[in-house]
Specification:
Elements (H helix, E strand, L loop, with lengths): L7 H37 L6 E3 L3 H27 L2 H26 L16 H26 L6 H22 L11 E3 L8 E3 L5 H28 L2 H22 L7 E3 H77 L6 H31 L6 H16 L2 E6 L8 H20 L5 E9 L2 E8 L14 H12 L3 E6 L5 E8 H4 L10
Parallel strand pairs: 5-6
Antiparallel strand pairs: 1-4, 2-3, 6-7, 7-9, 8-9
């Protein structure tokens, strides 16, 4: 049986994912150990305690928890709309419920700021507040469990609006019922007690103690959060989504928060419990997870854009190759054939016996002009076809062109290059071939050269191309304006970000040097794409 990870690249990716997931398991185990130790310290070290009077702090914590829960709900909903993951839909519904529960608790605190006994930094309890908060946490934990289970089992989800808004509407109904009928609902914690009643300045608030019902409900909620953390961890192991990894860590904090709240309820405004602190830690982990996922998404988008850019370069090069092939075919089948036909007609004309000397001279001139035109057309076809061969390297393109030029014109033309040359963009390679072509044409037409050497090399992150001949040479400063050949070579070098210099003196030959920086003229190859 063939192994599933026969590719080294796939195997390395699998090992990296396993290592990353094992790292998540280690983080979860460490957090559980630390939180268990802190919980034991709260129970057995009296000075730590699980409840503290901090006037106004609970208002800040509830506000923070409400904003974070609402933000996570929005992010999860957007994720569901983009990729259609059922787990994201249930997460959006769960955090919307948490936002409503935290918002209701916040409204209770704000609405009781002017209640009597506020000199102690506490506000009189409202029996509905713990019921609403507990109901919201139970519903959210159940939704998170359902969402992870549905995704792991591959169950198709329908009626997404009902899943998103149904629990939220149900919690709003619970809020209305609890607010109106709170005296008839079993309490989840003891009533507010004042000790030392005879002396007003010595009144001391006694923190509320949990009831049996409150303990069991919070323990159930904590257990559901633990189950949600485990299922989310499994979902992360399957998909590798970074957000699920952080969510599983945060759910551990939420579970311990429920366990603390079971024994240290914070029924009154101004009373902060260890469960409240762990709930805030849950929100902080979620914020870090959102930031990490955004960063990972941004990095993936950057890689995708880079890959698209490389693919675009390949597509542009392919289009350029096809266009150059078409042009070379049209030159060969069109212009070149027309020139040959004209040459044949002139040959027939010059063969007429009674043709005058002046007419014969004109025919000879026309024949020479047509031969020059045919040579130029053949050079153009050769350059286009050489540039359109994707299998040929730049070194081979240059060598073939120089060899063809030497065969056609009977000139000693040599090409020198040590090693392979880096591939450039199609435009850069084409312009370099045109510069070599123009230099060779000038050597045979104007310099009366017998030997031409073309040398190419890589020097200091630049591709250098030198074309030298043993011709008559010239004074570059004396070249008249409007000399098209030299001007066109300068323009071609500038187009590809290079620099062209001319070194020539009368009776001392000519050397044309082109330097192209590799950083601007490089092109992507298919091998650079990875998989």
């Amino acid at each position: 049986m063939r192994h599933a990870y026969h590719s080294p690249v796939l195997l390395s990716r699998h090992l990296f994912r396993v290592a990353r997931l094992d790292r998540l398991d280690a983080v979860l185990a460490a957090i559980v150990i630390v939180l268990a130790a802190l919980s034991a310290a709260v129970v057995f070290v009296p000075m730590l305690g699980g409840q503290h009077v901090e006037a106004g702090l609970d208002l800040v914590l509830d506000t923070f928890a409400t904003v974070v829960a609402l933000g996570v709900a929005v992010v999860a909903w957007v994720r569901y709309r983009e990729i259609g993951a059922p787990v994201a839909l249930f997460q959006a519904s769960a955090f919307l419920v948490l936002a409503i529960a935290s918002g209701a608790s916040l409204l209770f605190i704000v609405g009781r700021l002017d209640v009597a006994f506020s000199d102690f930094g506490l506000n009189m309890p409202r029996e509905a507040q713990p019921q609403i908060t507990t109901a919201g946490h139970l519903m959210a934990a159940a939704l998170l469990v359902c969402g992870a289970a549905v995704s792991l089992l591959g169950i198709r989800v329908r009626h997404h609006w009902l899943i998103l808004l149904g629990p939220a509407v149900a919690l709003l109904a619970i809020i209305q019922f609890a607010s109106a009928w709170s005296p008839y609902v079993p309490p989840l914690s003891s009533v507010f007690i004042l000790s030392n009643l005879p002396t007003w300045p010595n009144f001391q608030p006694v923190p509320p103690s949990p009831t049996s019902l409150g303990v069991w409900l919070h323990l159930v909620a904590g257990g559901l959060f633990v189950l949600a953390a485990e299922l989310t961890r499994r979902h992360h192991r399957r998909t590798g989504a970074m957000g699920d990894g952080f969510l599983s860590v945060g759910l551990v904090f939420a579970a311990f928060g429920e366990f603390h709240t079971a024994f240290y309820p914070s029924t009154y405004g101004g009373l902060v419990s260890s469960g409240d602190i762990l709930t805030v830690a849950f929100a902080v982990v979620l914020l870090i997870g959102i930031e990490a996922e955004v960063g990972a998404t941004r990095a993936q988008l950057g890689q995708a854009n880079e890959t698209l850019g490389r693919l675009k370069d390949v597509e542009v090069r392919q289009a350029a190759l096809e266009e150059r092939t078409r042009l070379s075919r049209e030159l060969h089948d069109g212009l070149a054939q027309d020139l040959w036909l004209a040459k044949l007609k002139i040959g027939r004309l010059s063969a007429i016996s009674d043709l005058g000397p002046e007419a014969r001279a004109v025919c000879d001139d026309l024949t020479g002009a047509i031969d020059a035109g045919l040579a130029d057309a053949r050079q153009a076809v050769m350059a286009l076809r050489l540039g359109s061969e994707p299998a040929l390297s730049l070194r081979e393109l240059m060598a073939n062109y120089v060899a063809d030029f030497a065969d056609r014109f009977g000139l000693r033309a040599e090409f020198e290059c040590e090693g392979e040359l880096p591939r450039l963009t199609p435009r850069a390679e084409a312009e370099l071939l045109r510069i070599v072509q123009e230099s060779l044409n000038n050597a045979i037409r104007h310099a009366d050269a017998t030997v031409v050497r073309v040398r190419a090399c890589v020097l200091d992150s630049h591709l250098e191309l030198v074309v030298g001949d043993n011709g008559c040479g010239f004074e570059p400063s004396a070249v008249r304006e409007g000399c098209f050949g030299l001007a066109s070579m300068q323009e071609r070098a500038l187009i590809i970000g290079g620099e062209l210099t001319i070194d020539s003196r009368p009776q001392d030959g000519t050397r044309i040097r082109v330097s192209v920086p590799l950083g601007t003229g490089r092109r992507a190859t298919v091998g650079e794409f990875g998989d």
